[in-house]
């Protein structure tokens, strides 16, 4: 049996836009670097508070020692790396293998608005929390400039 693809006699102006919206919906967000390692992007929330930012990143399955957080010139980087355990019996009984191995990487530019020396990190049950204090410079209010 052959299926015949039919086009609507009345094509919608938005049909291409609507289709492209869902093209990659079911594919995981991932990429690869030059070394061929898989990079996945962890889900991250950033909340702004009065004197700090709270960054919460989901990193399930990682040990604390697998995670690296670095800051340089206002650029905050979070990296976590898994490596697959290569066992000889690995291929003998696998029926389904969905666990991912590779690395996670996210980078955020806070510029000069934060106090880099006072950042605090906590990791518990797959969730990384960073408390990122604002620098006194960032607390300045916006100033309206008069145009002459």
UniProtKB/TrEMBL annotation:
Q: Which Pfam families match?
A: HSP20
**Alphabetical list of InterPro entries matching this protein:** A-crystallin/Hsp20_dom, HSP20-like_chaperone, Small_HSP
Q: What is this protein called?
A: Hsp20/alpha crystallin family protein
Give the family this protein belongs to, as stated in its UniProt record: Belongs to the small heat shock protein (HSP20) family.
Against PANTHER family, the record matches this protein to:
HEAT-SHOCK PROTEIN 20 FAMILY MEMBER
Concerning Gene3D superfamilies, the annotation shows: 2.60.40.790
Please state every residue range assigned to the domain named SHSP. 35-148
């Amino acid at each position: 049996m052959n299926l015949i693809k039919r086009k609507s006699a009345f094509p919608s102006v938005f049909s291409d836009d609507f289709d492209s919206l869902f093209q990659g919906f079911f594919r995981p967000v991932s990429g690869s670097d030059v070394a061929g390692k898989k990079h996945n992007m962890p889900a991250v929330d950033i909340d702004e508070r009065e004197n700090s930012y709270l960054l919460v990143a989901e990193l399930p399955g990682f040990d604390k020692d697998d995670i690296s957080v670095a800051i340089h010139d206002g650029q905050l980087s979070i990296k976590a790396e898994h490596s697959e355990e290569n066992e000889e019996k690995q291929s003998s009984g696998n029926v389904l293998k969905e666990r991912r191995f590779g690395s996670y990487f996210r980078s955020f530019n806070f510029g000069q608005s934060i106090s880099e020396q006072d950042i605090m990190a906590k990791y518990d049950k797959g969730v990384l929390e960073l408390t990122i204090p604002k620098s006194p410079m960032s607390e300045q209010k916006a100033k309206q400039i008069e145009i002459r």
